[in-house]
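Course assignment 3, question 2. Fill in each field.
Student: A.L.
Task: Predict the tertiary structure for the chain below.
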Amino acid sequence: MPKTLALESLTAEAFAPFGDLMVAKGQPDKIINQGKCGRFHDLGKLDFDGGRAGISLFRGEIESFPISVEMVERHPDGSQAFIPMSETEFLVIVAPDEDGVPGTPRAFLAARGQAINFHRGTWHGVLTPLSVPGLFAVVDRIGTGANLEEHWFDTPYSVEAVTEDAGEGLAQVS
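Answer field:
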């Protein structure tokens, strides 16, 4: 029998233990390019042990609800940023570390225009785009050594679709 969670809106405060929420909202930090561009500066803190920062493109398969969460992974040697290349929603699964294994996961719905940067060592689910094109720029550590740990849950979680009566950004997850 699946375990039950609640789908949460992705906010900077709620996501802070797991990473950085990156969004170009409000007033930019600086106006550049002859006054034609607003810069929202240093929104994600890159953190690498060895290696270097690299930019890759990921094209994820579109998922539809209910979404099964069978495993989480983490990268002990580097942070990992996911930046959608179109304004689409995506699912973000994270879990606190409890003595080297993931604790109870949390499910966040990333709104259009939001991007995330997982802190180094954060347990997280796989890339889960909810609509086409599912294309993301990913900034993470490029280097030698094992930088991937996976944990498979004994009992998977199932994320259900947002229901209208659940309120904005909230829904039941079972």
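Instructor remarks: The chain has one domain: 5-173. The chain has one helix and 17 strands.
Grade: pending
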